[in-house]
Amino acid sequence: MRPAHVALAALVAAVWGVNFVVIEIGLDHFPPLLFSALRFLVAALPAVFLVGRPTVAWKWIVGVGLALGVAKFGLLFTGMDLGAPAGLSSLILQIQAVFTALFAFLALGERPGKVKIAGMAVALAGIGVAAVDEGASGPLVGFALCVAAAACWGVSNVLTRKAAPPDALNFMVWVSTVPVLPLLALSLLLEGPERDLEALRGLDRTGVGVVVYCAWVVTVFGFGAWGWLLRRYPASSVAPFSLLVPVFGMSSAALFLDENVTPLRWCAAALLVGGVALTSLSRGRAAGAPVEGGALPVPVRGQAPVQTPDAESGAPARM
User: Fold this and answer.
1) Cα distance between residue 77 and residue 238, in whole Å
2) Average model confidence (pLDDT) for the chain?
3) Which residues contact 268 (CB under 8 A, 6 or more apart)?
4) Rounded to an integer, what distance in angstroms lies between the CA atom of residue 144 and that of residue 246?
5) What confidence tens digit (pLDDT) does each residue in 69-105 have?
6) Share of the chain above pLDDT 90, in %
C-alpha cells in the first residue's frame, strides 16, 4: 500500500476507535435508543438521495438493518449506558469475528481451519479475562449486552456476506434507513416520551456534534474510505488495520475519559486482539464483513475475488 493509503486506513481505524468515546459523551445527552435512532437518521439523510438506488435486494437491506442497526447498536448503546466502559466496549466488540466465523459455519457451511479455531479459543479466553476484570470493578449487565451486541454484529456480517453489495457505501446508507423507526418506537416504549422530549429540548452543540460524528464521520466517511481502499488493495492488506480499533478505543478512553486500564484488562486485550487476528486473518475462507471496525470485507460482485491459500489443503480459496 502507498504511504498515503496506509495513513488513510489508520485514520479510519482511529475514527472508529474514538467513536466509543464519542458515544459515551452522547449518552450524557440522549437516552441510548433515541441516540442510536438519531445517528442512523442523520447517516441516511441526505445521503440516501445522493448514493443512487439500492444495489442489492431489499431483504438484505432490511435484514442487516435490523440485525446491525436495531439489535447490535441498540444493545451496545444500552450496555454502555448501563456502565460498560468505552475502552472495554471497543475491545469486547471485536469478539464479533468469532461469532461471524461460528454463524458462517452454521449458515454457510464455511468450515474453519485449525488456526482459526485456535484463534477463536484464544479470543474467548480474552473475553473470560475481561469478564473477571469487569466483575471485579463494574456492572456485568452492561458487559453482557456488549457481548450480545457482538453476536448480533456477527449475524449482520453473515447477512452482508450473502448480500455481497457491490458498493459498500451505498449499502450502508440504505441500511441506515431501516433502524430509524424501530429504534424510535423502542425508545418511546422503553425510555418514555418524556425522557426523549427532554433530551431533544435540551439539544446543544455537543449533542449535535456527537450525532454528526457518529453518522457522517464514522459511517459515511469511514465506510466510504474503507470501501475505496478495498477496491484498490487485497483484503489481506487492508483488513489488519481494523485490529487497531480497540487500540485507539482503549487509549482514547484513557486519555479523554480517564478510564483506568487494569493489568487484567491489558491481558484481556492481548488475548482478544491476538485471537481475533488468528480468527480473521488466518488462511482459509473468511466469513466477516467490516462494520465499523470488523476485520474482513465481503466479496464484491464484478470484481476478481481475493485468493488465499486454503487452511486445510493449501489450495487457493475464494474469499
Assistant:
1) 28
2) 84
3) 91, 126, 127, 129, 130, 133
4) 18
5) 999 999 999 999 999 999 989 989 988 888 988 898 8
6) 51
2-49 tens-digit pLDDT: 899 999 999 999 999 999 999 999 999 999 999 999 999 999 999 999
Q: Beta-carbon neighbour count of residue 66 at 10 Å?
A: 19
Q: At 282, is the pLDDT very low, low, confident or very high (cuts 50, 70, 90)?
A: low
Phi first, then psi: give them for residue 316, nearest 5 degrees: -65, 140
Could you give the C-alpha distances from 289 to 47, 137, 159, in angstroms and in order? 22, 33, 9
What grid cell was written down for 35?
A: 441516540
Q: What is the pLDDT of residue 318?
A: 29
- Indicate the pTM of the whole model: 0.84
What residues contact residue 209 under an 8 Å CB cut-off, 6+ apart?
none
3-state secondary structure the chain: CCHHHHHHHHHHHHHHHHHHHHHHHHCCCCCHHHHHHHHHHHHHCCHHHCCCCCCCCHHHHHHHHHHHHHHHHHHHHHHHHCCCCHHHHHHHHHHHHHHHHHHHHHHHCCCCCHHHHHHHHHHHHHHHHHHHHHHHHCCHHHHHHHHHHHHHHHHHHHHHHHHCCCCHHHHHHHHHHCCHHHHHHHHHHHHCHHHHHHHHHCCCHHHHHHHHHHHHHHHHHHHHHHHHHHCCCCHHHHHHHHHHHHHHHHHHHHHHCCCCCCHHHHHHHHHHHHHHHHHHHCCCCCCCCCCCCCCCCCCCCCCCCCEEECCCCCCEEEC
